[in-house]
Amino acid sequence: MTIVPLAQDCSGCIHEWFQDYGDRFRRITRRAPERFMNRQWELVQADTTERLNLYATVVDQTEIDIRSLLDDRVAENSLWAAAKADYAARTAAGDDRELAETFFNSVTRRIFGTVGVNRQIEFIHDDHQPALPFPTESVFKTYPLTGAIEPVIRQIYSDCRDLKIDPTALERVMPRIAESVEKRLSEMNDRTRPVRIEMIRHIFYRGQGAYLIGRILAGKRIIPLVMALLHPPEGVAVDALLMDADGVSIVFSYTRSAFHVQVKKLRELVGFLKSIMPAKPEAEIYSAIGFFKHGKTVLYRDVCRHTAECTDDRFRLSPGKRGMVMVVFDMAGHEMVVKLIRDRFDNPKKTTRNKVLEQYDFVFNHYRVGRLIEAHAFEHLSFDRCWFSDDLIDHLIAEAGQTVHLAGDRVIIDHAYLERRVTPLDIYLKENTDKKAEAAVVDFGNAIKDLAFANIFPGDMLLKNFGVTRHGRVVFYDYDEIVPLTACRFRKIPQARSYMDEMADEPWYTVGEDDVFPEEFSRFLGLSPGHRELFLSRHADLLAPDFWVKAQDEIHTGHLRHIRPYHPRYRL
What we know:
alpha+beta, about 45% helix, 19 helices, single chain
């Protein structure tokens, strides 16, 4: 067999598996409307987990077939270069071409264990950032806004055929929706009077919520228009209206699970979403609609582009207290941080490298309720040595030498997590002494409670393990001791038998491996006296076993609490 037919067979095999992945992804996604209307929340969670793991499953299957097909020629670069050219021709006209290229790269990197990038056998687009296409009416439906607003809003709901909204509930909120839209429009002068509303044709589903996503066009100005719906036992109802970019951005946060939404013109859909959330990175938008692997690809290209363009920006150790398990570094001018697992863990940490990897996998598959930062796992990263100071290189090799090594003028990192940068909560509280700090203290408790009802116990609840986003939300990012809440046993400290018991170095009571004593939390939080008083005024229940046991009971009964991804001020 000559090289060209074999390369075509290789290309065809990968393309068939990519199409299979797309078919299975869409099949899972299409279940969302029925799940929502039937209130099948446990099945929603099962679908979310199944879709999350689908990509890796299909790549595994593809690798097996490719190794069988190519046999002893599986690592032949020239054959793969020919396969890449053939694959490019097969996918050139597809709306999902970029996803197809990412899939091809995933297979080659699995076969070759590529360090950095291999331009001969991978699809690389690092010369410029291709502009997102202008969305067309295949993505959205237009509603002219020439008269009264309420009939237009009614028509929008009427066109959502997958949703059977309770008429009584809709009548209750319709005047408020129309009034809110009218108020927003009245803020503009006549020259920018809105001419139309554009609504994405497909509904976005996630958890127990459904979302109508659109925008109001006022001349060159774009106003987001997002309506959130819930399905309590009484029937489907509109719960919230969001008309600002920050509020919508939080709904699409990197701390939440992905939406299930039918996609036909992917790049156009991303372009539409980017228009209503201009500050949100493109990579996060891909992840937010379920394309995590391509989101990683876009993220890596963005990091490479930043290092190439910003000649005065270099990697540095991230501000904040030194972690016992992870080394964290970043670039001041970029929004991502790089986290590496240390070779050795400081006392009292009793964990292993494999256990830390398992913890991050656990978070990836879990319902993240807006409180757990998305961590992108990367292997075999390669950076130019000039982006690192000698001191940083020495530190990385000393602390994570099993992961970091030098190869000529390149710094090779065998395994890393890239996460969105946030301000550590302890630093945030020192830098802000006003109402922002007070709001963060209150939200710190809210974050702990949200995690609890999502069956998450953070383990270490120190301030340094939490961060504050640019929107002021408190999130958690230290995953090395995270466990399911239901795996813990929450206890009250038994009364001391004597004064000597109280003064002893060791506890006078037995402590099991899974035992947790909530009344000890206040000693370890690290809040200033004023902030501690504020925290306890709102969250004193966190210091008693009753709260935690109640949350466990709720989880054991199968009840899944819906954590709204928007501030109460948006609710109708």
